[in-house]
Amino acid sequence: xxxxxxxxxxxxxxxxxxxYVIGVEIDPHTGEAAPRQTYWGPRLSPEAARQVTGLPERHxxxxxxxxxxxxxxxxxxxxxWGSPSLQVTFGHARSAELRFVRxxxxxxxxxxxxxxxxxxxxxxxxxxxxxxxxxxxxxxxVRAGTEVAVTRLDSGNWFVPDAAAYRYSGVFGTWAEESQLxxxxxxxxxxxxxxxxxxxxxVANPWVMIDAxxxxxxxxxxxxxxxxxxxxxxLTTTHRPEGGVGVSGGFGHDGPRWTLAPGEELxxxxxxxxxxxxxxxxxxxxWHAYAREHVLPTSAEERPVLYNSxxxxxxxxxxxxxxxxxxxxxALGVELYVIDDGWFGxxxxxxxxxxxxFPHRERFPEGLxxxxxxxxxxxxxxxxxxxxEGLSKESELYRARPDWALHLEHRRRDEKRGQLVLxxxxxxxxxxxxxxxxxLVTDLGLDYLKWDMNRPFTQAGWPEREAGxxxxxxxxxxxxxxxxxxxxxxxxxxxxxxxAGGGGRVDFGIMRYTDEVWPSDNTDARDRQTVQHxxxxxxxxxxxxxxxxxxxxPSTRRAMPLRYRFHVAMAGVxxxxxxxxxxxxxxxxxxxxxxxxxxxxxxxxxxxLQYRLAGTPGAERSAVQYVRGGQVVVLVYNPLGNARRxxxxxRLTGLDPEAVYELEGDGSRxxxxxxxxxxxxxxxxxxxxxxxxxxxxxxxxx
Length: 702
Known about the structure:
Layout: E1 3-7, E2 10-14, E3 18-26, E4 33-42, H1 46-50, E5 86-89, E6 98-106, E7 109-116, E8 121-128, E9 135-144, E10 148-153, E11 156-160, E12 167-172, E13 180-185, E14 189-195, E15 207-211, E16 222-227, E17 233-239, E18 245-251, E19 258-260, E20 265-267, E21 271-276, H2 279-294, E22 306-308, H3 310-313, H4 319-332, E23 336-339, H5 369-377, E24 381-386, E25 390-391, H6 396-400, E26 420-421, H7 427-444, E27 448-451, H8 472-490, E28 495-498, E29 516-517, H9 525-536, E30 545-548, H10 562-569, E31 573-576, H11 585-607, E32 609-614, E33 622-628, E34 631-638, E35 660-663, E36 669-671, H12 672-677, E37 693-701
Parallel strand pairs: 22-23, 22-31, 23-24, 24-27, 27-28, 28-29, 30-31
Antiparallel strand pairs: 1-2, 2-3, 3-4, 5-10, 6-7, 7-8, 8-9, 9-20, 9-21, 10-19, 11-18, 12-13, 12-15, 14-17, 15-16, 16-21, 17-18, 25-26, 32-33, 33-34, 34-37, 35-36, 35-37
GO molecular function: alpha-galactosidase activity
Catalytic activity: Hydrolysis of terminal, non-reducing alpha-D-galactose residues in alpha-D-galactosides, including galactose oligosaccharides, galactomannans and galactolipids
Enzyme class: hydrolase
C-alpha cells in the first residue's frame, strides 16, 4: 500500500525510494489541529516509520513557535508569525482556527479534512503517491459555507529535515536569458521566488531544490519542490533561526482577494515534492520520468524535426516564398514545417491585427489551404503560429469588443509590444477562441500549433465582476488550459508547443496540455547551453524545442560553426530556424547529414536517461549523455579553443560495467567499467584548436 495508516492520526506515504510521514497534532488545550510532517527521506518499513511519528520540539519562546515550519499548511492565526500558506478573513476577523474532522484514504490518495472552529469553512489537504515515481503530489481545497475572503492559498508547505547547513538551487533569468542556474547557501529568513506577471515568467521558474551543501551531480541528498502552475505564483523558502526549512508554494498574486460565496470552493494546483539520494542528476532524472509518465500528454512519441520560417521571413509571409523554403527544408529531411507570425489580418508588424485570425487579405486572397497542401505534397506535416491571448488595439476584434481585454475601470490600458491581453476567464472569450482555432485546424488540416503569449498582465481586471474580478488572476490561466484541452479533444492528432516570448511559460501546469515548450528566444548555441542546462534540472529533453539558426546569430551577432549549432540543438527536440535560402550548398549538405544523424539517436535523446557531464556548459568543456536500451548518445562541447587545462578524457556514467560497448565510427569495443573509470577522448577536447568544437559520440551495447 502506498499510503499506510500508522495510527489514528499518522500516515506514511511510500514511494519506490522514499517515505513521507505526516500526522495531525491536536493541541490539548485549544483543540486546534496542526497537520505536520515528521519525516521525509529514505524509504522506511512501516515499523520504522512508526518510530518517526514524533519530532522533539525545538526551544519555544514567547516570541516564536518553531514548529510552524513543519506544518503542511501554516495558517494565519494563533501563535504563528511566519509566512502563512493560508490567509482568510471572515467579516472583520482575519484568522483561521482549524479542527480535525476526518481522514479519507483511497487508491494512493489521502485527504485530511479540517474545519474552522467558528465558521462554516472547510479545508481539505490532499496527498497522492504513485507506485512508479518518487514525486508526491499535494494540493488544497477550501469550501465556504459563508462568505469568506481568501488572500493567500498555497498548495502546501514542505519541511526539509534538519541539517547543519542548507543550500538552495533554482533558476533566474530575463527575456533571452532564461533558466540560468544558481546555487548558494540558503540564508536564515525567507527567500522568495515569484512571478507577478500573470504567466510563469522569464524571471524565475516555480521550483527549488534544497540540500545540505555537500551534494554533487551524482552523490548526496536532494529535496525538491515544484509548482504545476502557469500564472502568477510564489515559492517561499523559510529557514528558521532555530533550524529547519519549510518551502510553501502556491498560485495567486500579491494583493488581490478571492471572495468565496456560500457553497463555493477553490482548488489549488498541485505542488510536487521529490526526495532523491543520488545527487542533482538522479533528482533531475526522477523529475524527467515523472513528466513523461504523468504530465506530458504524448511523451512516448518521437518528436519530428521541425522547420520554422520566422527568422527567414519575419512578417513578410507569402505562399511562393514559403513553398520555396519548404522545398529546401524537405530536402534536408525536415518532417514538420511551421509558418510563424505574419499570416493573418493586416499583420505587417507587431502593432496590429492580434485578434483578427483570418488569412492576410492582400497576401492570401484565396486563403492558406493551397500553401499547406503544397507543404504536405513535399512529405511534411504543417503547423502554424498563433497568439490566442493577444489583442491589438488596431484590430477588428478590439473595435468590436474592447470589453474583452483585461482592464480596470477608470484606469488606462497600457500596451506592451503594442498589444493587450484577452480575458480568458470569460466564457465568451474562450468560446470565441476555441471556435476559430477549431476551424483553423480543421480547414487547414494542421498538425501543430505554436501557441505564443507575448506580454505580462497589466491592469488585470474584469469590471463587470466588481468585487469578484480578482479571480481573473487564477481563472485566466485555467481558461487557457480549458481551451487547449478542448482543442486536443476535438483533434487528437494535434500537437501544441507552448511559447511565451521565449521561456515565459515553462512549467508542469502547461505541460499537461502541450507536447513541448520553447525555452528561449535566444538561439545562440553558446547561450542556449546555459539555458538548456537550467531547463534540464527539472524538465526532460523530449519537451524542449531547440533550433539551429543562422551565423552570426540574429540576436547576439556571435559567429558559430554549423556543427556546434546542430550539436547544441540535438540535445533536445531538433528544429531549424535559419534562412535556408542563404545557406551555401556545403551548409545544406552538412545540415542534411546532421539531421540524418539526429534521427538515428533522437529516441534516446528524447526518451532516455540524461546525465550532465564535466564542466559548466557554454563556458568549459562539457557533455550531456543519454542512455536508452542498448544505445548511448554523448554530445560533447568545447567552447574554448585554447583550453589546455581541464580533463583530457570524458568519463561516462550510467553504464553496465560488465557489458561491452561498441563505438560507432571506428568499431572499437570498450567495457562499461573502462568508459566510466577512464573515459573516452573526444576530438573536441584536444587542447589546441578553434573555438566551438563539438562531437556526437554514439555507442551500442554489444
